[in-house]
Amino acid sequence: LQGVVLCSTSLSQDLRDKLNDLSRSMGAVHRLDLTADVTHLIVGNIDTPKCRHTAKERPDIRVLKPEWIHAIRSSYMEDQDIDLDALDQEHRLPVFYNLHICVTGFEDIEERQHIIEKIRNNGAHYHGDLTREVSHLIVAKPKGAKYDRAKSWNIKTVSLKWLEESLDRAMALDESLYHPLMPLEDQGRGAFVRGYQRPPALGKRRRQESATEAKEDTGKRKMRRTTSAKLADHSQNMMTSFLSHGGEEASELVSDQWTDSNHIATPPRSATPPSRPKIASRHVSSEAGPVPRQEEPGLFSGLLCLLHGHDEKKAAKIDHVITSNEGRVSRSVEALRTAPDGDVHERKVLILPSDWTSVTKGSLPVVPPGTWLATEWWLERCIKNKTLIDPELDVLSQPHLGLPIDGFTDLSIATTGMGSDLLHIAKVVRLAGATYDEMLLPKTSILVVPSNVANSEKISYAAKHKIPVVSDAWLYESLENVRKMSFSDYVVTGRSRQPLDHRPLDRSSNRGTSAAPPQDQR
């Protein structure tokens, strides 16, 4: 697999780790993020941001089932000749993999049977009757009992053109672009890129340390880390205060004394973390010479943003942040719709309030296809990371209009090692319906940690008190899927390297008499 760059989506942590180990042993490179150099995407479920982005923007990527790696490994171990192209084709992910599709309104029996065969031959389950298990309804015309019932059940409703163009692309395309109420000539506009060219790989600087630097005493290094953490928190709190509702000071969550010694800089969080942001296409090759600072475009140049749902004072602050970074603000939905596409406006963005949920959200404007949906947190995260983030690939930048989550009401969640993402994580946990514990206590239901943090005092404390410890992927995928994911797929081991005991969350009262943990403001 020399030269193969893998990425995966919607796999359990155990399976993902196993496949990563196998692929690396055969020479492949694994990426946690869907970067420009990725050549193969391993998929467990097609309804994920990575799959949607690949379907639209990356026809160069081969989309495969997890069995592909096992098949190559088996041939390799048996010393057989390996035909990668043949194995790619054999294990290619079907276009409608595990979808449940129903059709209605097609009166011609031959046409209907032809549609059903396409559905079954491309990985989907066909349903003659419309039930709640159905994920997609293909309609000939937007009318009839099935169509009305699909609307009331929030089943994705598409025209026949969606089926045909998805087969043409070899991946399921964005259903919102094929709604049967749209004019036929407008359906599928911008659904996928037909003339993609892979951009040149970007170089990555490595931090060089001399032998002297490597031997710096622990106290100095700890001081550097502590100072860095304080500066990161100060920057985040300053930006949050700037954008906070009504100018009120955000509640401060100070540095976590348990994580000074292994504090890490946290990148934007995708549903399959840890995930670095998608970078807008205005980078230069690492081999190019340094570009003078004054010649660089503003962070939001090429963006046309529509603010919706914010009060006047907050909207004015957001407006200032965007325009001071060379972005533009649309004054109406109509202006956003009629703005020309191309060089002047590379991307349109609808910015909604971060506290909108299914309970508190207002009306949503109809925006052009391809418009990014984000919140004011997206602006903060772009500024902190000094790069333009694709909100579709960063859970904490997205609106959470489906929250709260069933099953979160009785949870009390604590975290460790989240760095500057902490404030957003604390808020989104509360929006999801759970309680956020700033200190890890015996009564805490669950401890969430970054997937690359193997050991910490908090993990040891949680193991002692039978508190489940899971990777942050559990939280992000619960947010993305708007349902409480199983703890067992995301468990993190403690210093003993033994799986934690996942006892019921309703813990016995004797835990309250145990020794309290060190005071932890995070």
From TrEMBL:
One example of a Gene Ontology biological process annotation: DNA replication initiation
Q: Tell me which InterPro entries the record gives.
A: BRCT2_TopBP1-like (IPR059215), BRCT_dom (IPR001357), BRCT_dom_sf (IPR036420)
Composition skew (Basic and acidic residues), residue ranges: 208-220, 498-509
Q: Is the keyword Repeat in the record?
A: yes
Keywords on record: Repeat
SMART domains, per database record:
BRCT
Q: What is the name of this protein?
A: BRCT domain-containing protein
- Its source organism is Aureobasidium namibiae CBS 147.97
